[in-house]
Specification:
341 residues, alpha/beta, Rossmann fold, 7-stranded parallel beta sheet, 10 helices, 35% helix, 16% strand
């Protein structure tokens, strides 16, 4: 077991969706010897940091420069949660993605391991490409075929870690469809819950893509949705458990877009109105109709908690965060209504 209270904790991407929730989870354990690392751009993601407790803020580029000049620049580091990356699947600047997602992660991983710090990093379920079954975190990485440059930049580091033996000392988390508070800065990469909340508020209607496969009715396309509070609970657990290699972080259940959006209407007190629209031609050949994480490695690591039912998670997100337009606060509890997964 790894002791999170041993040394300073570094969280990169700390103002983002998962990063800020990890800081929240650490604060709830009374851990605030934390250095938060990010690039605070022109968005308002800085607001996610306001309620949280931490020792220092460092710009992401400055952080890398300082540890390359002096590996001990920030004292005794015990744990690194590397959650910062460009996560836009539509980003076309391959050079930027390689520098930001691959090279930065490579440098940080070597520094952490050389410093005897626990290194936990964000991989992505996007590395599975177009696969709709056997989304297995023990799959041969060489067989995976990502569909975009973001996913490829993530897979490249997974391959590098495996090839060099780093993967035996670190853990990479293949996050599935994470949604929840503190994602408002993500623009078009926001979850459907966040987008649908805005659509319902503006028009009273949610628009979903029609299905073009007979075995899936309109709205019956499936994803593995995971609430950010559960995802970070899994993340912190895996840091403590000492698990190495790659681990899927998901619910282990495939649920439909209708399962996802219907609770939004209830939480907003609105009548259900869903419109099915044509999918753009350029997406139809690449569209995945079903994804589901195999979470056997997660469970084998000792994570035995039930996973929040999707309707409860959506209701919590909409009612406690989207309607009042607030960020995660340290006093916020994980949601109370949980049933066995």
């Amino acid at each position: 077991m790894h002791d999170l209270s041993r040394g300073t904790i570094v969280v990169t991407g700390a103002a983002g969706l998962i990063g800020s929730a990890v800081v929240w989870a650490l604060n709830r354990r009374n851990l605030d010897d934390v250095i938060v690392v990010d690039r605070l751009d022109t968005s308002e993601k800085w607001k996610h940091l306001v309620p949280l407790r931490f020792k220092d803020y460092i710009d992401a580029d400055d952080f890398l420069d300082r540890i390359e000049d002096d590996a001990h620049a920030f004292g005794s580091i015990g744990t690194v949660f590397h959650l910062g990356a460009c996560s836009a699947t539509t980003e076309l600047d391959s050079d930027y993605l390689m520098r930001n997602n691959y090279e930065y992660t490579r440098a940080l991983a070597h520094w952490a391991v050389d410093s005897d710090a626990r290194f936990v990093y964000a991989s992505s379920a996007a590395t599975y490409g177009a696969l709709e079954s056997d989304l297995d975190d023990e799959a041969d990485l060489r067989t995976l075929r990502p569909l975009n440059m973001y996913a490829y930049s993530k897979l490249l580091f997974d391959l590098y870690a495996q090839r060099t033996g780093l993967s035996g000392s670190i853990v990479g988390l293949k996050y599935f469809n994470v949604f929840g508070p503190n994602e408002d800065h993500k623009g078009d990469m926001r979850s459907i819950v966040n987008k649908a909340f805005g659509q319902i508020g503006d028009t009273g209607t949610v628009k979903l893509f029609k299905s073009y496969r007979p075995e899936f009715p309109d709205g019956g396309q499936q994803r593995d949705f995971i609430y950010v509070k559960d995802a970070v609970d899994m993340t912190v657990h895996l840091a403590e458990a000492g698990t190495t290699g790659l681990v899927n972080v998901g619910s282990g259940q495939a649920q439909t877009w209708l399962d996802l959006v219907r609770p939004i209407f209830g939480a907003m007190g609105r009548d259900e109105r869903i419109e099915f629209v044509e999918m753009p031609e350029q997406l139809r050949d690449k569209y995945q109709y079903s994804t589901c994480a195999r979470i056997g490695r997660l469970r084998a690591s000792g994570y035995d908690k039930p996973i929040t039912p999707l309707a409860d998670a959506v209701t919590d997100y909409v009612g406690r965060y989207l309607i009042p337009a607030r960020s995660l606060e340290i006093a916020d509890q994980p949601i109370a209504t949980r049933v066995a997964s």
